Amino acid sequence: MRQVIRILVVGCGNMGASHAKAYHDLDGFEIVGLVARGESKSKLNSELGNIYKLFDSYEDALAETKPDAVCIATYPDTHKDYAIKAFQSGAHVFMEKPLAEDVTSAQDVVDAAVKYDRKLVVGYILRYHPSWIKFIELSKTMGKPLVMRMNLNQQSHGYMWNVHKNLMSSLSPIVDCGVHYIDVMCQMVGAKPLYVSAIGARLTDDIPTWNYNYGQLQLHFEDGSVGWYEAGWGPMVSQNAFFVKDVFGPNGAVCIVANKASDEGQSDSVASHTKTESLRVHYADLNSNNEFMKVDEWINLSDEPDHQELCNREQLFFLQAILDDLDLSASMEDAINSLRIALACDEAVKTRQMIKL
After folding, report:
1. Please, are residues 316 and 26 in contact by the beta-carbon 8 Å criterion?
2. Are 84 and 114 contacting, i.e. CB atoms less than 8 angstroms apart?
3. Residue 170: what pLDDT?
4. Whose C-alpha in 101, 174, 235, 289 is 20 to 30 A from the C-alpha of 268?
5. Which of 191, 235, 183 is nearest to 213 (CA)?
6. What's the CA dihedral at 314, 124, 127, 259 to 10 degrees?
7. Residue 87, SS3?
8. What H or E segment, with its residue span, contains residue 50?
């Protein structure tokens, strides 16, 4: 009989709720408790049928439930402490990105996973998205060097502005979201990043004085490839061109064209952030008159999972990693690397200097 993984969910906000719903619906998992300091756990439990035990204290929940695995979807300042305690108790860990607040702490988490022989999966949700997998695959056919242009600006208000303000008490938008797109760029290029530069601006007094709610980072790779990522959060952010996912090289270009996901009012919708809808492939081949030889190709993948389905796929991979004893060393190193680059970009904003990696 297949083993059922007893899992403790820590953090019941946006991503924690989505992961809990995955565990609730998928065979192979059993939720043993929901942990949060506020009322989000009660709201989530109500949505799931009021059948799970609630905890205010992570340590109490860990000691009482003795789970096989822990899902950590809290703010990054708790990640290291919570993960290491989970490993020490014998539990595997699914961790929302970023892995930790700093590179040393991230390495400590990975070292603990290795020391206690437990699985650590970090929530890089785009790695499970068929369209993003295809996007990366096609980018590798465009020659070198590559130019990669990406952003995800969010005109947040109401509940989402509260979420963003809470996040910015510990990290900047280009670190929180940037790790995803830095990870994608590194997969596309397959070359060593050499140095980073970045700009940023603090557009509100609602966040700590050391932080900023708009940033743009630039990456420079060993093979000559370059890429930028832009992220702005807040009620003042423009919605014009908030969703850009575009790559080009000597052979042409490939881009994500998400018509409905980039509609007015969608910029702070978590559900819209993973939609791709279609890929447009452009070929640079010219004839003797310098006219294009090929028409652009449109790719519409039939498998277009929504945000919840992507969370389900992440957790099915987590389950497989545990049951089949998968080697996760490469993905753990990638999680450290993308965080290291993102934090270097953050340093570049604050020092106004280019940072060598």
Report:
1. yes
2. no
3. 87
4. 101
5. 235
6. 100
7. helix
8. none
